[in-house]
Amino acid sequence: MGSYLSDAIVSGNLPQWSEVVSFFNETILLAEKDEEKIVSKSNIGIAYINLAVLYMNGPQPVDEEAFLSNLEKATSIAKQYDLKNIYRSSIGLKGQYFMQKGEYQYAENLFKEGIDYQLTLPYKDNDVLATFYSCLKDVSILQNNYKAYYEYDKLFARYNRLKHDHTTQQMLQNADARYESEKKISRIQQLEQENRLQEKNKLLGYAIAAVLLIGLIFMYRSYYYRQRYYQNREDNLQQQQANNELKVQLMEKETLENLAEKLSLERRLLRSQMDPHFIFNALGNIQSMILQHDPTMAVSYLGKFAKLTRQVLEQSRMETITLEDEIQTLRNYMELQQLRLNNSFDYEIHCNDDLDTDILLPPLLIQPFIENAVEHGLKPLLDRRGLLTLSFSVNEEDNILVCTITDNGIGLKESRKRRPKDAHRSLSSQITDERLRHMLKDNPHTEFRVEESDKTDSSRGCVVILHIPIN
Fold first, then answer.
1. Angle between helix 126-143 and 84-101 (nearest 10)
2. Measured between alpha carbons, how far is 87 from 77 in angstroms, rounded to an integer?
3. How big, in percent rounded to 5, are the helix, strand and coil portions of the chain?
4. Within a 13 Å sphere around the CA of 224, how many CA atoms are in the beta-carbon half?
């Protein structure tokens, strides 16, 4: 803005000279106030130079004091901040002023000072030197010193030529610089492309390394889990083997215990089947028959007793016997009971026509119930002859043998009334219960049921129904 106003004053387009001077003074005043905040100090020097030009080209006569004051301030700024262009402009403008004023010698000294200053710089500005020598030529003409003019003209021609040579050289240098710059740019682009390629290769290498690392991790995890799986399987197999061995030991122990219990039951069963009273009474009756000279009957009953004893001994060691063998044993037993009780009761055995007598059942299972019927139902009977009925049938739907034992004795209620309070349950009944529990333990899917009740009709007596699973 300041340069525009200054040029306008010189060209005569703007007559408000005082307003322009006031503008520059305000600008310089603001610049001096905030000098520390201004980064480019050359702007302050240029403002002083422009203001000096205004005074030089303004109303005549020139305000020399203001003109020189602004030049001195510009020179001071140039020296303080080493502003060479401001210093040269200040000296040149001052020399032109004194040349116009007619003080040629002082103007010549100023131009020479500018030349000396320019020659002290590390580089030579041929254009500035040519300008200073041109001014010296003008001073020489005004002084009529043609010899000095001749010398200054040679120097002017020299630096003017160098100025043009320098311009040409500068153009060539600029061309070389552009070529080198383009070459460098091309090289930079090539290097950038190579760098991008290297970055891509580096990223590709990282990706391959990552894939390999992931693969190694996966292989390690697979190997680890596979080893862990095999180890767990081996541990499980060992644990299972140990459990199986323990189970076998427990089964063997349980088998031995069951076998011992079974043998104990068999021994107790053997002892219980042959009641000592029954044996002694049977032998006594046989002896009485012999003494009564009835050897035929005595031999018959002795044979039955021997056969029953042999059957009990044999069957007590067997797991199962046929129904036919069981009926034969029961028949011998009831006949001996008749002998013992002086034929005070009769017995009957009924089997359904479709009943297979070869079916298997546990031995000596029914005898204790026959014994109870005789001892507690028929033996106390005094007012009538006793009758013991044994019936066998098959429930084909449930595959069960039904054995019904019926007597016309005194009945359950009466028998329990007559039984002493401290009387113990018969040994054969207790062992029969234990045998049933033992059989259920060995065969959990089978069922043994015993139903005891008094007769429902007007006649007295007891009914026992056994439900025996058929093997």
1. 10
2. 8
3. 70, 10, 20
4. 6
Domain ranges of the chain: 1-169, 195-273, 276-469
Band of residue 428 on the pLDDT scale cut at 50, 70, 90: low
Amino acid letter, residue 41: K
Cα distance between residue 68 and residue 89, in whole Å: 13
Tell me the CATH number of domain 1-169, given options 3.40.50.10810, 3.30.70.1130, 1.25.40.10, 2.60.40.420. Answer: 1.25.40.10
d(CA 71, CA 86) in angstroms, rounded, equals: 10
pLDDT tens digits along 158-204: 888 887 765 555 554 455 456 567 767 888 888 888 888 888 888 88
Q: Is the peptide bond preceding residue 61 cis, with omega within 30 degrees of 0?
A: yes
Count Cβ atoms below 10 Å from residue 192 Cβ, excluding itself.
Answer: 10
Structure tokens at 39: 């980064």
Q: Specify the CATH number for 276-469; select among 3.40.710.10, 3.30.565.10, 3.30.365.10, 1.10.560.10.
A: 3.30.565.10
Partner residues linked to 360 by β-bridges? 322
Asked if residue 462 lies in contact with residue 377, where contact means CB atoms within 8 angstroms, the answer is: yes
Residue that has been written with the tokens 């140039």 in this structure? 78
DSSP 423: P
**What does 26-78 look like in DSSP terms, one character per residue?**
HHHHHHHHTGGG-S-THHHHHHHHHHHHHHHHSSSSP-HHHHHHHHHHHHHHH
Q: Are 464 and 448 in contact (CB under 8 A)?
A: no
Residue 392 has pLDDT above 90, yes or no: yes
Q: Do the bridges between strand 345-351 and strand 386-395 make them parallel or antiparallel, or are there none, so unpaired? A: parallel
Instruction: Please give the Cα distance from 324 to 303 (Å, whole number).
Output: 19
